[in-house]
């Protein structure tokens, strides 16, 4: 067991532009622990009195300045951890810092130069180089690559990663066994026999990582990635197997949203990144505190996977990546503080050795066979798995003689064969169980004898209970007879009262001596009549609104409405609905009559069953016989008929309810269609009236001018109606051009009757362009003119 704290290192990233002198300094005295001092320059904008802290000093195992290359980082940080993994210990290396500080460059490396390779490819090269040198052991290597994106785990080595979207891939879930060991479901392990295969798996996983451009970094990794090398070793012929795993963790960078100003999808990613790093810091703080009972590993997926690396069986190393520019000093100080807390955690690394169960089984089987051979050589006989029939009979005889022997010092000698000893025990157990079963049978026979003596008592109890039951039945019947008698007396009394009331009713309705009572009766009946009339009025008003006041139409307008309705597209639907509605009404009526018949039949059957019960009880009382418990055939027949009628009643009632719903739906459809038809007719009628007024010739003839002057009142009324055509309640028929009585007197002397009717030329009627519609309009106008002539002749 190796006890040590987590090793912390610091690496300073070269700045994009030349940094200001005096921001930080590194003290690497050989006698002392290296320390990093960060100096905050005084901001004159804060005033002369400024109590802010100006310098921060942090200690690390080693600090790598801006000129440190990748080879130096590997030799000082990753190589010792890889050596411990080859020895059988677990190891973890993780980089922590703000976004854009060089974490991915340190762990994975850059793609521009071969010398920019990071810790992961250099570690793979070192491990496979050592495996080739050591030929005394058998090594197997497996690779896994886990990505934690928005708190969901994904397998970066899944071959479906490129063809499918991220949501369609199976998520990696965490499982925990009773020993609190973590297992990752849906995370594949790929065996790598050479360095080339391992590097191909690394490059495949890197291409599947989530990378986005942010204000702090052009290629910022938006997820935590854990590259794990599983190594197992075994010496030839040995049953001991060593297992070790190395986690190389590239954490996503923390960032201040207010500083970077990201939004949308990048903002969501930043939230999850900062939240998981917050949970990691909570675990670090809990581990650094003494006497802390609970460590919140389960708060996030990353801390659950790295449970052994943080305060467990692992040799852990942390690399704090720092970007010591003036704008990033606050984040760099926060990273250094986090590293100081990590350095307080102690891990206990244990050599992971276990015995191969397959080799143990083979060794035990070989040992058993050797012992059998030695036993056969000592006894001089080869033993089989089971005893022979002769040996079993001999053992049973020995057991019988041993049990029959009355000598208390007698022994059962079967030799040193354990098979015979076990068989003797089994046989004795069987004899003991048989004896117990026999004793139980004898006890049960004695109890049966006792039970045979008790039937008389039981019979006595039954007869007594039957007697009590008959007494109760007699009392109930007597009470029923008394009630029936009382009902008959009350019926006779009511009949006498009815006869007296009938005699009084033949007298005058309002006696002469009391006229106020008749007046009160008339007044009391008046409100009910008024209520009935109000209900009728409401119904008529509703019908009036639905039909659109069709009863107020004039004769010509009704003819136009009938022609419009006949040619309308919904007329066929309305007629079909009317026919269906009539059929449903007839069906509902027939069903209602059938339901009433079934209901009356059910009541009749119930009365017959009740009468039969009363007759049976009365017959039993008169003849002193017991009432039969089972119903007779006639009652069964009545009950079956009753059940059949009930089923029929339910079926018809269900059908009636369905018909009611269908009828209401059809009525609603018809009402809607009628309202729609009426509205469309009103619109059409108003448009036609407007066209007739606008397109009429200004001066047709002198007689027409005189006639229009005489009927100016009616024309004013027509224009008034046309201006109010939007009002539904004011829909009226256009006034007929028949002259008033005053104008008739004047025209009778000057012009003939036919000239009094304004005849509009057919050529001045506005046409629509459709031949069928135009012919319908002309026929309608001609019919209207003939009707108006007849009306005027009749009035004369």
TrEMBL record:
Its main location: cytoplasm. GO terms for cellular component: microtubule. Residues 639-676 form a coiled coil. InterPro entries: KIF6/9_C, Kinesin-like_fam, Kinesin_motor_CS, Kinesin_motor_dom, Kinesin_motor_dom_sf, P-loop_NTPase. Keywords: ATP-binding, Coiled coil, Cytoplasm, Cytoskeleton, Microtubule, Motor protein, Nucleotide-binding. It is found in: Cytoplasm, Cytoskeleton. Residues 5-345 form the Kinesin motor domain. Gene3D superfamilies: Kinesin motor domain (3.40.850.10). SMART domains: KISc. GO terms for biological process: microtubule-based movement. Residues 741-753 have a biased composition (Polar residues). Pfam families: KIF9 (PF23735), Kinesin (PF00225). GO terms for molecular function: ATP binding; microtubule binding; microtubule motor activity. Belongs to the TRAFAC class myosin-kinesin ATPase superfamily. Kinesin family. This is Kinesin-like protein. It comes from Pongo abelii. The gene is KIF6.
